[in-house]
Design brief:
The protein is α/β, with parallel strands linked by helices. The chain contains eleven helices and nine strands. Strands 1-9-8-2-7-3-4 form a seven-stranded mixed sheet, with helices on both faces. A two-stranded antiparallel ribbon has the order 5-6.
Length: 261
């Protein structure tokens, strides 16, 4: 019997999510703050956000460490800490759990660690592309996956990674723009850096201790929801500094974001 229906039910129970947040938070806090150097920028942009229909769009560097960092920041901010560090993690006593994150189904089903973390609020979607002969082959959007995100936005905040991969400057997926057009959310761009240097691809093992990890929240985007999906996606990719414009800025920008050449 598949564990997915059970996980789907459990992750909607607030008490289960609080327990998962606390356990994950206890183990991950030292890795972010003590082993590495953790800095938050633009956290004041979270102060006036409503409790629902907020979409955080971000570049992506590891499978899990990126999202875990977001959850720490959101919990701290909901306890009234709007500073550039996490401080003492007392927020784990009663974590803010009104957040979901979009993740590939195969990633969250890979092992017991990923299945446990899925209980924190994963919206599992099937990839709209596969790699074949070292090339990307589009498979088309799955409407049921889009509906999952729409339902989550109706009550909560949602984190999504438009590129759907940890590869820097990979093209964005149109699904993000379609969700924006349909739900008209407040879209908050986020730029993260240093995670690829500190952790392995999964974000579970150290690569280089003492790395500077930065999460930068920008002001909510001004979006014309009647614009084309192509134009909306282009603006999103520019906002998270993964567009061709930023790629052409060369080594200086890549180094600032902690991206390999």
């Amino acid at each position: 019997m598949s564990s997915q229906p059970i996980i789907a039910r459990l992750k909607n129970l607030n008490i289960v999510r609080k327990v998962v947040y606390t356990i994950v938070g206890i183990f991950s806090y030292p890795r972010l703050v003590w082993v590495n150097k953790f800095r938050i920028e633009g956290i004041e942009n979270l102060k006036t956000l409503p409790r629902n229909n907020v979409l955080f769009v971000s570049n992506h560097q590891t499978y899990f460490a990126d999202v875990i960092a977001f959850l720490h920041i959101f919990c701290a901010s909901k306890w009234g800490r709007y500073k550039n560090t996490l401080g003492v993690p007392y927020y784990l006593l009663n974590p803010f759990t009104n957040v979901y994150f979009v993740s590939a189904a195969e990633t969250m089903q890979a092992n017991w660690v990923s299945r446990f973390f899925a209980l924190a609020g994963a919206i599992t979607v099937r990839r709209t592309w596969v790699e074949k002969d070292k090339k990307e082959v589009r498979k088309g959007l799955d409407p049921s996956d889009t509906r999952k995100i729409l339902r989550a936005l109706d009550t909560s905040w949602v984190i999504t990674f438009p590129q759907g991969t940890t590869k820097a400057y990979a093209p964005g997926r149109k699904g993000t723009a379609l969700v924006i057009k349909q739900t008209k959310p407040i879209v908050v761009p986020v730029v993260i850096s240093g995670f690829w240097r500190a952790f392995d691809k999964k974000g579970l093992r150290f690569k280089k201790k003492g790395s500077l990890l930065t999460v930068r929240f920008k002001e909510p985007m001004e979006i014309d929801y009647d614009d084309t999906t192509e134009n909306i996606l282009e603006k999103v990719m520019d906002a998270i500094e993964q567009s061709k414009t930023y790629m052409l800025k060369g080594a200086h920008h890549r180094e600032r974001l902690g991206i390999k050449n």
